[in-house]
Structures are given as C-alpha cells and as structure tokens.
Recover the amino acids of this structure.
C-alpha cells in the first residue's frame, strides 16, 4: 500500500515493516543485438523524454557486454500515484515502439524503489 508520505508500509503476517521511500523508479528494459540497434533505441528515448512527468529524472544504462538497455525514470513518491493512474504514460507507446524495432527483444517494465544511500 503506497501513501503520499515518505514511508512504504508492507504488512508481513502479524507485523508491519516500514522502509523509507522518497522516490519511485519505473524501468523500461530490453535486449538489443548491437550498437546499431542501441542507437535506434537511443533515438526513441530522446523522443519520449519530453512526454515524461515534468518532475522526473531519467537515466539510461547500457551494458555492451550483454547488450542490456535500460531507461530508468524516477519521480517523487508524491507524484508516483498520478503517473501510475495514467498507466505510466507514455510507456505503452514507447514499449510498442521498442517491440517493433528490429533487433530488440525481451521488452519489459517494472517499478521499484531506487535511492542513493550515501
């Protein structure tokens, strides 16, 4: 159960555990078959950035050894519920564009907490 505060509360049996949460990340990921395909995906990411929530930060990760390509969009917890309610727009269109790109496979999306612990 998410709340618009700085805690994520998850009941576990008779006890409840609290993990502080300030931001939530939505990750879009896929496999690419090489540099040329990664460049095509990079272009799709550039096109979609302006359609993301205005308070979002975006990171791109590429592993050239395994050809993993990931886009991580992080929003404040208070904004996450609204973005989730909008089906993480423009996620559906972006994922369809990925799936239609030759050389792209294993397209998926996932939300999680990603916070620096300095």
């Amino acid at each position: 159960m998410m709340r618009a505060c700085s805690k994520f509360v998850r009941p576990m049996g008779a006890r409840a555990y609290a993990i502080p949460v300030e931001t939530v990340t939505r990750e879009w990921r896929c496999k690419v078959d090489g540099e040329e395909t990664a460049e095509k995906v990079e272009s799709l990411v550039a096109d979609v950035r302006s359609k993301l929530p205005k308070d979002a930060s975006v990171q791109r990760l590429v592993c050239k050894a395994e050809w993993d390509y990931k886009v991580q969009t992080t929003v404040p917890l208070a904004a996450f519920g609204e973005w989730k309610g909008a089906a993480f727009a423009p996620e559906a269109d972006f994922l369809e564009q990925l799936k239609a790109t030759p050389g792209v496979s294993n397209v998926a999306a996932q939300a999680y907490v990603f916070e620096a612990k300095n």
Remarks:
- The chain is about 25% helix and 40% strand.
- The radius of gyration is 16 Å.
- Helices lie at 35-48, 77-85, 91-99.
- Residues 1-12 have pLDDT under 50 and may be disordered.
